[in-house]
Design a protein that fits this description.
Oligomer: single chain
Helix content: 25-40%
Shape: elongated
Number of domains: 2
Largest sheet: 4 strands, antiparallel
Order of helices and strands: EHHHHEEEEEHEH
Number of helices: 6
Number of strands: 7
Strand order of the largest sheet: 1-2-3-4
């Protein structure tokens, strides 16, 4: 199961107009300078604006790649979180629990400043929370690679379109915990 990370989706929605604006501006300004130069194409004046077109295509390609690359995928090895330059696999043995909570829980107290203004619209939406457990030498590189936007000292919060389905998929692959509290039984009384 694969789902996009909503931070990249919001970035795409906010920035997708700019590449088209560059291309349109390049065409219009090249036409204006050509018309103003008595219908003669001058590479020194009009050609500069024609460079806006490949630049707009380059920015559009980058935004599409950014959007496509930011995703969460459930694999046999673990939960794979991909960003633009790298991907991190969190093995199932390191995941203590999976929850779906509002994203604003991740940015409470002193972490409030980490919520970027462009991502504030995601705060009331539900997100996938992965609680990590394991030796610090295994968990710390994962937190460092994911960054402070996704990882906090006790959990990894990932805004995805359908966190419930992803939560079910991950929960079904978690190993059974030996010695977990089974509940329902009364404790023995302590002897005096």
């Amino acid at each position: 199961m694969r789902q996009p990370i909503l931070y990249a989706e919001i970035q795409w929605r906010r920035q997708r107009v700019w590449p088209f604006m560059f291309m349109l501006l390049g065409l219009v300004m090249a036409g204006v300078y050509t018309y103003g130069n008595h219908m003669r194409f001058d590479l020194a004046q009009s050609g500069v604006f024609l460079l806006y077109i490949p630049f707009g295509l380059l920015v559009l390609g980058f935004l599409l790649y950014y959007r496509r690359r930011h995703q969460v995928e459930v694999t046999e090895q673990g939960v794979k979180i991909s960003s633009i330059l790298s991907s991190t696999v969190i093995p199932y043995e390191l995941i203590r629990g999976v929850r779906v909570q509002p994203l604003e829980r991740h940015f409470q107290d002193d972490r409030r400043r980490l919520a970027r203004p462009v991502n504030r619209e995601l705060l009331p939406r539900p997100a996938l929370f992965l609680r990590l457990r394991g030796p610090e030498e295994q968990v710390q590189p994962i937190r460092r690679k994911l960054g402070r936007q996704l990882a906090s000292p006790d959990a990894v919060a990932i805004p995805v379109p359908d966190p419930d389905a992803l939560s079910w998929e991950i929960s079904s692959r978690l190993p059974e915990r030996a010695g977990a509290n089974l509940g329902g039984q009364r404790r023995r009384r302590r002897g005096r």
